[in-house]
UniProtKB/TrEMBL annotation:
Gene3D superfamilies: P-loop containing nucleotide triphosphate hydrolases (3.40.50.300). GO terms for molecular function: ATP binding; ATP-dependent DNA damage sensor activity; four-way junction DNA binding; single-stranded DNA binding. The keyword Cell membrane does not apply. It comes from Danaus plexippus plexippus. Residues 76-289 form the RecA family profile domain. It is found in: Nucleus. This is DNA repair protein RAD51 4. GO terms for cellular component: microtubule organizing center; Rad51B-Rad51C-Rad51D-XRCC2 complex; replication fork. InterPro entries: HRR_RAD51_Paralog (IPR051988), P-loop_NTPase (IPR027417), Rad51_C (IPR013632), RecA_ATP-bd (IPR020588).
């Protein structure tokens, strides 16, 4: 709570009288009965009310009605388009500000989707992407191959790849330190639009041991000819409410061929978890479409 700062409004004797009656903070002063304050300070009720109003003016947020707040939120909303039409549609025009979690079983296309988003965000723009690799398996050759198969010249490929900054971290402490330095300005990444962490669980599990469920762990049960598979989120109850949006990737076994696969993406807004939007994407050597 804020200390009582009324030196310009009350005399020392008046402040002393308030302190003796355990009115020591601004909150105490505002919550106390005005008649009691008038008796303790020997000020008139209009004077007490004037002091209260001055406190409200100095420390309260400016009032704004709901309509103005909504209009401001809509007009100033910032989002980054992924460049994948179907995905942008279920994300309501693109990636919003905040944290987005992408999860799914191994081989469901998580890293491929991250790389495609990185490519699409930097091409034809001044954006820079910070790609944090925690597994040591980021391959610039994969990005180069995608760009090459999409007809980009060597010059354009070089420009795009230079805008994707790769940083490798091996512990959660290193990751936190990196993010704090970026936030404080000790590390400056020009035109930084997006930070991709691939992936977070392998850092977190260094602290939890082997008994915890891994990201995208498959829980399988065979019942005769039936096969049940379930993917579990792994970062705990606290983390469940951290991401603004949860994207769950699921590989479609029915449409797999030698050169591509289809994935189903389910998008859940954590502010409205009962509404789930879905789309189908194709993953191939050309990227994610």
């Amino acid at each position: 709570m804020l200390k009582l700062k009324l030196e310009d409004l009350l005399t020392d004797n008046e402040l002393k009288s308030l302190n003796q009656n355990r009115i020591t903070t601004l909150l105490d002063f505002l919550q106390e009965d005005t008649e009691k304050l008038s008796i303790l300070t020997q000020l008139t009720l209009p004077q007490i009310l004037e002091i209260r109003n001055n406190i409200f003016k100095k420390y309260s947020a400016e009032p704004i009605n709901g309509t103005d707040l909504y209009i401001t939120s809509i007009t100033k909303r910032k989002s980054i388009q992924t460049g994948i039409k179907e995905l942008d549609s279920i994300l309501d025009r693109g990636i919003p500000s905040g944290i987005i979690e992408i999860c799914g079983l191994a081989g469901s296309g998580k890293s491929q989707l991250c790389m495609q988003i990185a490519i699409n965000c930097v091409k034809d723009s001044d954006n820079t992407i910070l790609y944090i690799d925690t597994k040591g398996d980021f391959s610039a050759l994969r990005i180069q191959k995608i760009l090459d198969l999409n007809g980009y010249s060597h010059k354009d490929m070089a420009i795009i790849m230079l805008k994707i900054k790769i940083v490798r971290v091996w512990t959660i402490e290193d990751l936190i330190e990196l993010i704090q330095k970026i936030k404080s300005g000790l590390i400056v990444v020009e035109n930084l639009a997006l930070v991709i962490i691939d992936s977070l669980p392998c850092l977190v599990f260094q602290h939890f041991g082997d008994d915890n469920k891994m990201d995208g762990e498959s829980t399988s049960v065979n019942k005769g000819s039936n096969y049940i598979e379930k993917a579990n989120r792994c970062l705990g109850k606290y983390w469940e409410n951290i991401p603004a949006i949860l994207l769950i990737l699921k590989r479609s076994l029915e449409s797999i061929d030698d050169n591509s696969l289809s994935i189903r993406i389910s998008a859940t807004n954590c502010n409205n978890p009962h509404v789930v939007k879905t789309c189908m994407l194709k993953v191939s050597a050309l990227g994610v479409r």
